[in-house]
Amino acid sequence: MFFHRQWIVLLYYLKQQEEEIQILALKYLVPVTDFAAIKESGISPVHSAAAGAHPQCLEFLLKSGFDANFMLDQRVRKGYDDHRKSALYFAVSNGDLCSTRLLLNAGALTNQDPINCLQIALRMGNYELMNLLLRHGANVNYFCRVNTTHFPSALQYALKDEVMLRMLLNYGYNVQRCFDCPGGNHCHSQYVTDGWTSTVIKDTMFCEVITLSWLKHLSGKVVRVMLDYVDHVKICWKLEAVLKEQKLWPDIHFILTNPRSLKHLCRLKIRECMGRLRLRCPVFMTFLPLPNCLKDYILYKEYDLYGQENFTGIYNLSCT
């Protein structure tokens, strides 16, 4: 029987070979592989193929019945600072779109690792990986374990990029939590220093982050985009003070002080009733008894900058 340690050596060797030799070797070795030994080893050949960026080997292994959701054993995870578990995490970390797609199509789950796979794609600024993960159920409302904010953590990586920001919001990011500030019209407590401290911060509000000296120039653009995804909201004193300095303030002020359109409110209610997982499911949307134009409106297709290959949104207007 073929054991996993030999698999690792084999895949390292096959990296130097042509694709035909890789597949030929696997055809002979997969039938005599001891799956019990693989389970005991705590790591699957699928991990090795994904880590080494071998999409052809990965595809063959998945078609041969290897589990796309085999998780690294605890003793193996300790060898990685991020304690990664899934083969999908390896593929996403490599920026390997082909391997990521193969794993997702084979049923790989997107939210199994301590550090969310979506967070890795966001750090890279990789639109294709982000879109692929979101379409397959990546949790857009995940929270980091360190420096936990009151609002879902993904937003921190999208503040400077409207394409990324719109993508997160279109897939059901919880915008309401960004305006959920207990400070209201009262003065906010100040940190020892302006912004992040050397200690772990718990439950940091959006207004505390976006009004930092190096981010407040983006506050108008970020808030203006967010207002497309919420009902009437109230902004706190601290956020309002910074927004008044931005060129988009007149537009923001008009939205905040006037009733939202019935069409907009209906869209929000329908999205709330559908839930995040149904919104991202193309099959579910296909069976909805609604005209295509209405489906597109519910999905915010007019703001799908990535799908439109349109990179001239609010952020690229001549306002600072």
Automatic annotation (TrEMBL):
Keywords tagged on the record: ANK repeat, Repeat
GO BP, sorted A to Z: intracellular signal transduction; protein ubiquitination
UniProt-recorded name of the protein: Ankyrin repeat and SOCS box protein 14 isoform X2
Gene Ontology, cellular component aspect: cytoplasm
All residue ranges annotated as the SOCS box domain in the record: 257-304
Pfam families: Ank_2, SOCS_box
Pathway this chain belongs to: Protein modification; protein ubiquitination
Alphabetized PROSITE patterns for the sequence: ANK_REP_REGION (PS50297), ANK_REPEAT (PS50088), SOCS (PS50225)
InterPro entries linked to this entry: Ankyrin_rpt, Ankyrin_rpt-contain_sf, SOCS_box, SOCS_box-like_dom_sf
